[in-house]
Description:
Elements: E1 3-9, E2 18-24, H1 42-55, E3 58-64, H2 66-72, H3 74-87, E4 95-99, E5 110-114, H4 122-145, H5 151-154, H6 160-169
Amino acid sequence: MVVAGCDEAGRGCLAGPVVAASVILPKDFKNSKINDSKVLSEKNRDYLRQVIEDQAISWSVGLASPGEIDKVNILNASFIAMHRAIKKLHITPKLLLIDGNRFKIYKGISHKCIIKGDSKYISISAASILAKTYRDEIMRELDVWHSEYNWRKNKGYPTKEHRDAIKRIGISKHHRKSFQLLSSQLSLEV
Length: 190
């Protein structure tokens, strides 16, 4: 049976797209280094991305823009990004292994949601690595035009530095306007 692992990156960010990947690995594929992208160094993720792209039967990446996130919410935008990644696979899988606890069915293909699946199934781990590396690449490219937010370093996540830049200069067209970009309590009056 052809199985595709699916995962996304960037759900908790204040800026940039949510990026999903789908990966079909050979049945006998083994690589002890492949794991949840969050526990790997950037250097290892970049190395493993090449291994996955070279050895996967099929792989693809899809994304949903900040505008789409604002329109349909981050959960539904994650599903859109996953559906786009699945659609671009060269082979139609019979089963989708989804990292997490929710998913919207895609064209009648069976799916199984697995909490912490990116640390349990190698195909989901591989998708996690591709989603994370592609998203990080996008944020580094956006940083060229918006270096004041330091996306090269924080990748759009809600760091103090990122929030301070928003306070100082406002938001860009790449920010998610439906997210709480700044704390609702900026100071404490005593």
